[in-house]
Design goal:
mainly alpha, 5 strands, 557 residues, 26 helices, five-stranded mixed beta sheet
């Protein structure tokens, strides 16, 4: 392919994808919040960044310092508020930043695929990334997810580039030391973008150490080479630690913890939601979490959605017959491709995946950590988002292998191979349309209620009122009241109170006069996590009815 045509296609893909993302980013802010595009958890980031910009520090309520967030995204947002942007407009600006980051990630995937495979694989990878509904949802969620995967892709590109330049990070004007500093800094930022990046960083350092020839001009023997590699790995590790050091010091000084306090809270909430607090970690908990993790990776909900829509259109018998026919056709297609020699083209490309072994290690680590220990299955689509770029690359080289296979099989008729790629492109665009419809259908209606409650609190409570909420992000950002988090995600004291079953005493000690949330959460995490003596002293009087309730805390006379 000519360079001019290549660049033109790449630019068109990036512009097309960016246009979709900007269309999402500049919807009315009320719609972004009420549809969950900028959800309750995204509002935690907005509140923290706003409070940092106004001098209160990393806190959602202006009172409790927290490390229960991923710092890089929060600090990127700080200048928006420091420059005086209204809170509502800041939402659109934050989404615009995510749109740009997601688009740049598409460019990085092209560069990475070109390094590992070919330019055509790179173009396909960019196309799949820019048109994937899953990518749109997760990279445009108002949170750190898109930035996190961008940092993973950037680090992978640096590492793969280094291994192709004679095994060092030095083939540039920056020199060996400069490139190692850059690589270590990027790895440090990867962890700051999301602490889940730690396994990726460790594996990337090992990969660099194994491939590095050291910093000397030439090593004379195997022992010198080994020492040189170890020194290089230690040096990069030191840069990573130095990059993390300010954040680690802050976390220890404010919460006494190195890891985000939100992790412990999510694990506790997972156990509480399925009634497993008393039994602890059991086979029931692990099997449930593991099944949810598999369901997320296999896209079970999406397949069920497609099946249900087919049933609505043509009836159950016809729909199931159609799906069975698709399965049979897929098997026949695999057999046909085998006869055409497709796998002979595919296997060499598949072997190149070894260059990304550190990313595959990261994916396996995430799956095991979350499915077997950390839990938080309602967030699994977000937690497992690093799988998607790898899936995009795999899909791209599979499509490229198909093109080359058909091109070789039908040498006199190139249109066969071109038609196959055309079908893949059209199918992807159809997936974009169907996926967007699915995402709209799956929108959690409660996001609109979060906004309604925030506006109600702003209108009906005194300006000096303190409100307690378990899911407090939207209200802490928009209600203009002091809203104290009660589920422990950004407030470690609340988590301690839940663990010790003294929630009402804690709420009273904080001067909280209103409780707002879903009745189920108030029952589960407040009333059931309070002692009998506390419950006998205080009562909740409902002052707002709705999907989410607001109660006034009153002392029993």
């Amino acid at each position: 392919m000519r360079v001019s045509s290549l660049i033109r296609l790449l630019v068109l893909m990036l512009i097309f994808g960016l246009s979709i993302r900007l269309a999402i980013a500049w919807q009315p802010w009320e719609r972004l919040i009420s549809t969950g595009a900028f959800g309750d958890d995204a509002c935690y980031y907005a509140s923290i960044s706003y409070n940092i910009a106004t001098g209160k520090g990393p806190t959602t309520d202006g009172i409790h310092m927290t490390n229960g967030f991923q710092p890089l995204w929060a600090f990127i947002l700080v200048p928006i508020y420091a420059l005086g942007a209204p809170k509502e407009t800041a939402i659109n600006i934050a989404m615009t930043l995510l749109a740009l980051i997601s688009t740049l990630n598409g460019l990085l995937l092209f560069l990475l695929a070109r390094k590992v495979w070919s330019e055509r694989v790179g173009l396909l990878a960019t196309f799949f990334w820019m048109t994937s509904p899953t990518v749109l949802k997760q990279s445009m969620n108002g949170m750190e997810t898109g930035l996190y995967v961008f940092m993973l892709t950037l680090a992978a590109l640096l590492l793969v580039s280094s291994t192709q330049n004679h095994g060092t990070l030095c083939e540039s004007k920056f020199g060996k030391i400069g490139m190692q500093i850059l690589f270590g800094f990027v790895l440090g930022l990867t962890i700051l973008s999301r602490v889940d990046g730690l396994p990726f960083v460790l594996a990337a350092i090992v990969a660099h150490t194994l491939s590095s020839n050291g910093t000397g001009a030439r090593v004379r023997n195997a022992s010198q080479k080994l020492v040189s590699r170890i020194v290089s790995g230690v040096f990069i590790s030191a840069i990573v630690v130095l990059t993390l050091l300010p954040w680690l010091i802050y976390g220890i000084a404010t919460t006494g913890k190195v890891m985000p306090e939100s992790g412990m809270a999510i694990r506790f909430l997972s156990m509480a939601y399925i009634g497993a607090l008393d039994e602890g970690i059991s086979w029931r908990v692990i099997s449930y979490s593991f099944s949810q993790a598999l369901s997320t990776l296999l896209r079970v909900k999406q397949w069920r959605y497609l099946s249900s829509k087919l049933v609505e259109l043509v009836g159950a018998v016809s729909a199931h017959g159609f799906l069975a026919s698709l399965l049979v056709m897929s098997i026949l297609l695999i057999v046909l491709l085998y006869r055409f020699g497709y796998f002979e083209h595919l296997m060499p490309m598949l072997k190149e995946m070894r260059k990304l072994w550190f990313w595959l290690f990261h994916i396996v680590s995430l799956f095991l950590a979350y499915s077997l220990y950390q839990f938080g299955w309602w967030f699994f689509p977000r937690y497992f988002f690093p799988v998607i770029p790898v899936g995009v690359l795999v899909g791209a080289f599979c499509a490229e292998a198909l093109y080359r296979c058909l091109l070789e099989r039908f040498k006199q008729c190139r249109c066969v191979a071109q038609t196959a790629i055309g079908i893949i492109v059209v199918s992807q665009l159809m997936q974009l349309c169907i996926g967007c419809a699915y995402l709209r259908s799956e929108s959690f209606c409660g996001f609109e209620e979060y906004l309604n409650v925030a506006l109600w609190l702003k209108k009906h409570t005194p300006k000096d009122a303190r409100i307690g909420m378990f899911q407090s992000g939207t209200s802490s950002y928009l209600s203009e009241r002091t809203v104290i988090n009660l589920d422990g995600v950004v407030n470690g004291k609340a988590l301690s109170a839940m663990l010790e079953k003294r929630m009402l005493n804690y709420i009273v000690s904080e001067g909280i006069s209103y409780i707002a949330d879903w009745d189920e959460l108030i029952e589960l995490l407040l009333l059931k996590r309070s002692g009998k003596e506390e419950l006998s002293k205080w009562m909740l009087i409902k002052v707002r009815k709705g999907e989410m309730s607001v109660y006034k805390l009153v002392k029993v006379k």
